[in-house]
Amino acid sequence: MRLDKIFTIPSVANYPKILLRDNWYNDNYMSLIQEKIATYSPAQLSIDAVGDSKIVLLVGITGAGKDTIKNALLREDDFYNFVSYTTRQPRENKGVLEQDGREYHFITIDEAMEMLERGEFIEAKEYAGNIYGTAFEGLQQAVSEGKIAINDVEVQGVEEYKKYIRNAIAVFILPPNFEEWQRRLQLRYDPEEFRQEWPKRREAAIRELEHALKVPYYHFVINDELDKAVEATKVIAHNDDMFTRKDDEARLLARDILDAIRKHV
User: Fold this and answer.
1) Among candidates 103, 137, 107, which has minimal Cα distance to 119?
2) Which of 2-6, 10-14, 196-200 is most confident?
3) Which residue in 39, 41, 42, 30 sits closest to 3, CA to CA?
4) Which residue of 64, 71, 77, 211 could cross-link 60, Cys pair, CB 3.0 to 4.6 Å?
5) For 41-93, what is each residue's pLDDT tens digit?
6) What DSSP string runs through the chain?
7) More confident residue, 228 or 126
8) Is a pLDDT exceeding 60 seen at residue 99?
9) CB-based contact 156:163 (threshold 8 Å)
């Protein structure tokens, strides 16, 4: 399906691996994308091929340290970097441009829509005019290499994985307490930026923690000392989703942090 033949938008032929410019969007075009994602379901052959694959899904409120833990685990031989797809352009992070195949697989809108048509995504979403998704192909590659796939996702994405991947292990990364979480957030922004960002970060943290605490399948890992947090996540990954007393203790701490965030307006 070529969108540039359906709607009056320039051809993507001269823009490989790069997102269409925002001002090329029109209402019909965006409606088609949103409708396709809203009604999307993976191909059954893809589901059957990876049903017993193991994947660790790292979730966490902003500033908890999930990216740091993920990068530490990927330095281990037994983990595989399960990279998501996106139609947005690569960005610079601290002066370093994102690379195709490292931060994301950068694809065109046409390529993303074709993957949706073929049912190749495990889960997909549209955000700010861009398509994001993870594909079954990455899990198949992890299995072929005898490794555990690992990816960082939002809480909504975990639900999609749980529908199709029996060994999807959800790990919610937490700061040790509310005060430390605020300190970490403040280091990311100058004072004015923090003032603007705080309401959004607070609301997102409440929403994510409330959701995670309502369902039984989340492990919670406290990122107080990085080495210990990495080791705890590794143990969970290798224990085939078996829950222990430490999970109960971490879940209680998650409730305490949630209560503290709710009180701090």
Assistant:
1) 137
2) 196-200
3) 30
4) 64
5) 999 988 888 877 889 999 999 889 998 999 999 999 999 999 999 999 998 87
6) --HHHHSS---STT-TTSPPPGGG--HHHHHHHHHHHHT----HHHHHHHTT-EEEEEEE-TTS-HHHHHHHHHTSTTEEE---EESSPP-EETTEE--BTTTBEE--HHHHHHHHHHT-EEEEEEETTEEEEEEHHHHHHHHHTT-EEEEE--HHHHHHHHHH-TEEEEEEEE-SSHHHHHHHHHHHS-HHHHHHHHHHHHHHHHHHHHHHHHSTTEEEEE-SSHHHHHHHHHHHHHTTT---HHHHHHHHHHHHHHHHHHH--
7) 228
8) yes
9) no
SS3 of 192-241: HHHHHHHHHHHHHHHHHHHHHHHCCCEEEEECCCHHHHHHHHHHHHHCCC
Stated length of the chain? 265
Virtual torsion, Cα 140, 146, 150, 155, nearest 10 deg: 60
What is the distance between the alpha carbons of residues 63 and 197, in angstroms, rounded to a whole number?
Answer: 13
Q: Please say whether the beta carbons of 89 and 19 come within 8 A.
A: yes
Chain segment 6-28, per-residue pLDDT in tens = 333 333 333 333 344 444 445 67
Measured CA to CA, the distance from residue 174 to residue 62 in angstroms comes to: 9
- Residue 169 bridge partners (DSSP): 56
pLDDT of residue 46: 87
